[in-house]
Amino acid sequence: MAARKPGVTDVTSHSTPFSVKGKSAIVTGAGSGINFSFAGLLLAKGCNVLIADLSLRAEAQKLLSEYDGKGKPKAVFVKTDVTDWTQLERMFDVARHEFGSVDVICPGAGIYDPHWTNFWHPPGSPKSKDSPTSNRYTTLDINITHPIRTTQLAISQYLADNVSPSNPKRVVIISSIAGQASNLNTPLYVAAKHAMNGFIRSLGPLDARLGIRVNGVAPGVIKTPLWTEHPEKLSFLDEQQDAWATPEEVAVAMLRCVEEEGLGGGTVLEVGAGQTRVVEQFNDPGPSGRGIRLRILRGAMRRCLGGWGGGVGRKKAEAKL
To answer: Domain for residue 2, yes or no?
Structure first.
């Protein structure tokens, strides 16, 4: 076995076997997409799931009907705005009432820089919903503050439930290949995912010390409504050259983060089309392969500047792109 670098703790050797069967989970954003697939996989494996989202797509509604707790795991829905901390607390209260305890938390709700909260549509511009007097960006509230606050609430709940290495609990966070990359089109999203990678790795030692494993996945280009229902984002993609990965592939990686003994706290799994790998903290080669890279169009940047306020300044910027 190769010697470890000084100051690096091997947390994997302390991992306690963990199965989601008979456990209970909270998954935010599970009304569609990756988080829906993860919720469905948990339920199929015998785990109760509280779905916290603003609304449910038809497939999520069907999941609720199928898993009613009668002879099988139970799925419940709590309408939740993840930017509201009171509502985040409420989902924990409901989960405890419905299930008795909570073992897995996935603050998975996220957005991919929509025009209404976007660096290239500054607060106060016509398309932006971010007020110039609010002192905040909604995209950061959803993609950074929500998973951080939910993880705080999870740790508090786990400590109250006497978590320990022999009574382990889990947190799974959704990062992105953007956590290692850069993208002029979506700088706030990239900043958020870099933040999540650092957050996941910083909490890694909790696995060995307390039995709270915080891991994450870094999906590539995943075929979800986040992409397919937004033509402005599909313009970044060349479907003849670029490959989609599936939400189901990401869900399997998320389950691995929860259950697999060798994936100790602080692990990030990158997921592409037909490929999953551990992202190293140092000297990682970076995202690559099918379902990872995009053919970004120069025209996308010009469209982004459409919200910059117009006028001569915008035209000069466009001319340089």
So the answer is: no
**Is pLDDT above 80 for 150?**
yes
- For 250, the domain range is 14-320
What whole-number distance in Å separates Cα of residue 154 and Cα of residue 214?
11
At 18-67, the pLDDT tens digits run 999 999 999 999 999 999 999 999 999 999 999 999 999 999 999 999 99
> Is 221 inside any structural domain?
yes
* 3-class secondary structure per residue, the chain: CCCCCCCCCCCHHHCCCCCCCCCEEEEECCCCHHHHHHHHHHHHCCCEEEEEECCCCHHHHHHHHHCECCCCCEEEEEECCCCCHHHHHHHHHHHHHHHCCCCEEECCCCCCCCCCCECCECCCCCCCCCCCCCCCCHHHHHHHHHHHHHHHHHHHHHHHCCCECCECEEEEEECCHHHCCCCCCCHHHHHHHHHHHHHHHHCCCHHHHHCEEEEEEEECCECCHHHHCCHHHHCCCCCCCCCCECHHHHHHHHHHHHHCCCCCCCCEEEEECCEEEECCCCCCCCCCCCCCCCCCCHHHHHHHHHHCCCHHHHHHHHHHC
Residue 264: HSE in the Cβ half-sphere, 13 Å Cα cutoff: 18
pLDDT at 291: 76
Name the residue among 75, 15, 68 with its Cα closest to residue 213: 15
Query: Would 35 be classed as within a structural domain?
Result: yes
Q: Which residue has tokens 């469209």?
A: 303
The pTM of this model reads 0.87
Distance of CA 36 to the CA centre of its chain: 12
CATH code for position 239: 3.40.50.720
How many angstroms separate the CA atoms of 252 and 233, rounded?
Answer: 25
Which residue has 């929509």 as its token pair?
114
User: Nearest-CA neighbor of 173 among 199, 137, 208?
Assistant: 199
Total of domains in the chain: 1
- Residue 237 pLDDT exceeds 70: no
Q: Is residue 6 part of a domain?
A: no
